[in-house]
Specification:
By secondary structure, this protein is of the alpha+beta class. It has a single domain, classed as RNA polymerase II/Efflux pump adaptor protein, barrel-sandwich hybrid domain (OB fold (Dihydrolipoamide Acetyltransferase, E2P), Beta Barrel), CATH 2.40.50.100. Helices cover 20% and strands 34% of the residues. It has a 6-stranded antiparallel β-sheet. Strands 4-6-7 form a 3-stranded antiparallel β-sheet. A hairpin with a 3-residue loop joins strand 6 and strand 7. The chain is globular, with a radius of gyration of 14 Å. The two termini are 16 Å apart.
Length: 131
Amino acid sequence: MAEVTYPADLKYHPEHDWARVEGDVATFGITAYAEDQLGEVVFFDPPEVGTQVTKDESYAELESVKAVSDVIAPLSGEIVEVNEALAAEPEKVNEDPYGDGWLVRVRLSDPAELDALLEPPAYEELLAQES
């Protein structure tokens, strides 16, 4: 397997979720490590647009051939968009976790929470400690 890299423009949550912040909106997804651990994703159960999510709490479920897993919010806010393409093609989460496999977009309610997320080198260190 090729070495996995973690994009520098993302912030990482210790539960293997990421956030890409643009202005007051963040795109959320799961990391390459998380999708690898899950195995083949077969279903994404998204929240409704307008739902409030809270940092460190589950906001959705991903079902894989191995298990159903909660997806943890790296930041708090209101869901403003759901990746509708995943309804027909949930495998995009595995194929492109940082691109077409994004899960939701959230209007942030507390941008200061971003300070608690990990930069790529710190996230990679966390992974090294877990393995």
